[in-house]
Amino acid sequence: MGGAPEGESGEVVPQYAAAIAVAVATLLLSTSAAAQSSPSTPGPYVIDIRAPMSGLPSTSAFHPVLPSNTLVPKRGFGLGIGGHIYLASLGVSRVGVGVEVMRVRGTAVTPATPSTPATSTGTSSSSGASLSTTGQIDVAMTLTAVTPQLSFNFGTREGWSYLSGGYGVTQIRTEATGERQGPLTGQTTLVRDDGRSAAINYGGGARWFIRARVAVGFDLRFQRIAAVGTRPGATLVVASVGLSVR
Question: Which of 33, 46, 125, 233 is 20 to 30 Å from 138 by CA-CA measure?
Fold first, then answer.
């Protein structure tokens, strides 16, 4: 008898629509910022489209109840979009403000091992159910982050490096799908989602313009995610490459 998925799947990005709207409105002010900036300084604004790779937490506190030795994802890949404007000079640097929205997803598959006892580990599940090792277990973790940033940029309009940091929010959702452990049988999905939590981000990167309006670049960032509920905090490393336009 097939089981229905336990837990509801919620979309995270729409919950951050207000933050994205603020970012778009800020970018619309870039015309006035351009008039105030020197042609030789970074800016006046950029829009980034990047492919991030992020580490993912692998401790049991970030997952529903799982059988022992279940494989879980340790890194994820996805998409990041952001925008920055450059407002004023401070010493040798150009000060910028902006926001980035990132979503990454990682997956792991544990083959069926009928001879292994189904001893479970973990801290919670959607209804107290657990999965059996007699079937394949698929685990997927999705990380969504909205990261406002203040940046200090060094270089010229044709290319610059930067250091940046800010305070934002993240949400981590994990789903594990497999055969239900008796007495009931059938496929089921367990969900672990502790909601949004605060996060501090800091890092740096660089952009090089290969065309008048198109640049290539990279970013290396640390996300320090705060504890929420019974889930502990975590520090993740995010590396991304992509294109910038202005």
Answer: 233
Cα diameter, the chain: 72
Instruction: Please state, in angstroms and rounded to a whole number, the distance separating the CA atoms of residues 181 and 138.
Output: 15
Strands 93-110 and 120-121: unpaired
Render pLDDT for 188-215 as a digit per residue (tens, 0 to 9). 999 999 999 999 999 999 999 999 999 9
CA angle 98, 100, 105 (to 5 degrees): 170
- With 0.85 as the threshold, say if the pTM is over it: no
Query: Please, are residues 122 and 94 in contact by the beta-carbon 8 Å criterion?
Result: no
